[in-house]
Amino acid sequence: MHLPYAVSTASAPEVGLDALRTSWSAWTASLDWTDVSAFWAEVSPYFPVAVAGAIVWGLWLYRFILSHRAKPIVTDHRATTSVVVPSFHEDPDILMSALESWRAQHPDEIIIVLDVEDLDAYARIEALQDPTITPILFHHVGKRSALGAGIRLAKHDILVLTDSDTWWQPDLLRNVQMPFIDPLVGAVGTHQTVYMRETSVWRRIADWLVNLRYLDYVPAMGAAGAVPCISGRTAVYRRSAVLPVLEHLENEYFLGKRCISGDDGRLTWLVLASGYKTVHQSTARALSMFPASFRAFVKQRVRWSRNSYRCYLTAIGTGWLWRVPFITKVTVLQILLTPVTMGLTMFYLIFNRLDFTVLGVSAAVCWLLLGRGIRGISHLRRHPRDILILPVLAFAVILVALPIKLYAFATMNKQGWLTRHANQIGGDGQDAVSLETGTAAKSGQEIVA
């Protein structure tokens, strides 16, 4: 008589789990727990930095991917346009050159609000005898007052607020009108780059930083409909969205002091708080003057940092920040907290973990440059030679994030422009002479063409 074969009642997954448990038990039994404890003691001091780094890099990658997936808005929408240009003691050569780039795109009107002492520029504009251009002499009490004067004179649906030292690239005016097909769009930002970047290392550094903003940061927030600051160098608004809040732009007070600079961030948040979207149009390109000297570069960054603190702390205090999409919330909070997070990380690494030997310091510097190079990949793809100034860029980022931002926070309610003065033509390091290198300076029209 044949006995039947025994049939296992265990399922295949159970057999697999039993084998896995057996292997795990064998592996753990073979471990030398003294070595494991020693390894953990070695790496555990770095754990807080590793967690913080993972969060920071994760947020950067999230924003980077969203930005590079964002597409420009393309429609057939057209509207009437008023260009408003506040101009305080601008170098007349710079102003007239920029004016030609605006005229070439045929806006319905251009209103240039000059200071009462800018008689040379006024005469040169009048000599053009162009009926679409209206120069006015106005006693400037900060840029906001000049913007208010120009906006109240504007007659058309779309306001294009442009700095007096900014040149438009071809088709900017056509491209900025396209997003306004959506009635909820209240403001459109443009892609800014630095005019004649090769004339100064600090212009190249500024161009690098500006490129990262407009390639890796702003498009993600624009796609969500909440860019937190539409740059005032060329900012485009729906006139009907601006007029109801114009009084709040002109008469902003922070801790009892009237605000002078920071008009672009203030107007952006007023429009956002009114329920409109603020978007980015990557195909609308403009070139702007930036400081040629280190001193002027630092002054500009101090002013911008003060403006950011006042603007974003106001947005938090009024509750505006909590009503915008996550990507904008986290970006604003990162901007505010950068001195704290970077400062604590650097303090911890330098005073607790850094090996002060040639090898240790060299490794730390290489790691710093590698990280900054990875974050700068979007810019380096366009300007690969700038890899040579990567150490200068890393220095500038640390300078801005720590001493400049800390000083700006401590003095955030100190009002002033810093780079423009009543007794000086042109901004610090931003006049026509500053554009001259070893050869004759190119004209703005040549660059735009």
Features:
449 residues, alpha/beta, 8-stranded mixed sheet, two-stranded antiparallel ribbon, 17 helices, elongated, disordered N terminus, disordered C terminus
- Element string (H = helix, E = strand): HHHEHEHEHEEHEHEHHEEHEHHHHHH
How many helices? 17
Roughly how many Å is the radius of gyration?
28 Å
Structural class: alpha/beta
Distance between the termini: 101 Å
The largest sheet has its strands arranged as: 3-2-1-4-7-6-10-5
Gross morphology is elongated
Number of strands: 10
Low-confidence segments: 3-7, 438-449
β content, as a range?
5-15%
Largest β-sheet summary: 8 strands, mixed
Secondary structure: helix percent: 40-55%
User: Roughly what is the average pLDDT, rounded to an integer?
Assistant: 89
Walk me through what this model shows.
The protein is built from 17 helices and 10 strands. The chain is of the alpha/beta class and 449 residues long. It has a domain at 64-77 and 169-332. The strands form 2 sheets. It has an 8-stranded mixed beta sheet with strand order 3-2-1-4-7-6-10-5, with helices on both faces. Strands 8-9 form a two-stranded antiparallel sheet. Helix 5 (119-126) links the parallel strand 2 (109-115) and strand 3. Helix 12 packs across helix 13. The longest helix has 28 residues, at 326-353. The radius of gyration is 28 Å and the shape is elongated. Residues 3-7 and 438-449 have low confidence and may be disordered.
